[in-house]
Amino acid sequence: MTDTAMYPPQPSPDADTLGFWQATAEGRLAMCRCQLCGLWHMPPLERCRECAGPTAFEPVLGTGSLYSFIIQHHPAISGYTENLPYAVGLIELDEQQGLRLPARIVGIETSAIVCDMRMQVVFEQLPGGDYVVPVFTPAIP
């Protein structure tokens, strides 16, 4: 096993995702939003899919509800093989119905995870690189 095989894959930011990664590096969550009609987009787009207006990254609260999730029981991605089982969820952010962000779920036993539970973002350093990634944990009431 090479050293790189011990770490999870690293992001490859491009013009469409750079704003997202710049925000996470600062411990903030920012999503792509149309500057004309206000529609949020995930995945990020250069132009709005509704009105063709320009988009930019804007901060979001980082709270939402768990829309769906999976529990990973078998090693599939390098860097996470010692953390089995782990959960990956689709969090619907509070800013807009349908604005969903995939992320790991932390801070809870996988057997206790249920759809519609309230979630909040936290940030973790991605092993093996310089990136900070958003993960979600159950929201404190």
Structure description:
By secondary structure, the chain is mainly beta. The chain folds into two domains: 11-59, no CATH class; 61-141, no CATH class. It is 6% helix and 36% strand. It has one helix spanning 18-25, and strands at 30-34, 40-41, 55-59, 63-72, 86-93, 100-105, 118-125, 132-138. The strands form two sheets. A five-stranded antiparallel sheet has the order 6-5-4-7-8. The protein has a three-stranded antiparallel sheet with strand order 2-1-3. 19% of the residues are buried. The model has no long low-confidence stretch (mean pLDDT 93).
- Point out poorly predicted stretches: none
SSE succession: HEEEEEEEE
* Coarse morphology: globular
Number of strands: 8
- Please report the distance between the alpha carbons of the first and last residues: 43 Å
Instruction: Give average pLDDT, whole number.
Output: 93
Q: What is the radius of gyration?
A: 16 Å
**Total number of domains:** 2
Please describe the biggest sheet, giving its number of strands, its sense, and whether it closes into a barrel.
5 strands, antiparallel
Write the layout of secondary structure elements.
Layout: H1 18-25, E1 30-34, E2 40-41, E3 55-59, E4 63-72, E5 86-93, E6 100-105, E7 118-125, E8 132-138
Question: Could you list some keywords that capture this structure?
Answer:
globular, 8 strands, mainly beta, 141 residues, 1 helix, 2 domains, single chain, 3-stranded antiparallel β-sheet, 36% strand, 5-stranded antiparallel β-sheet
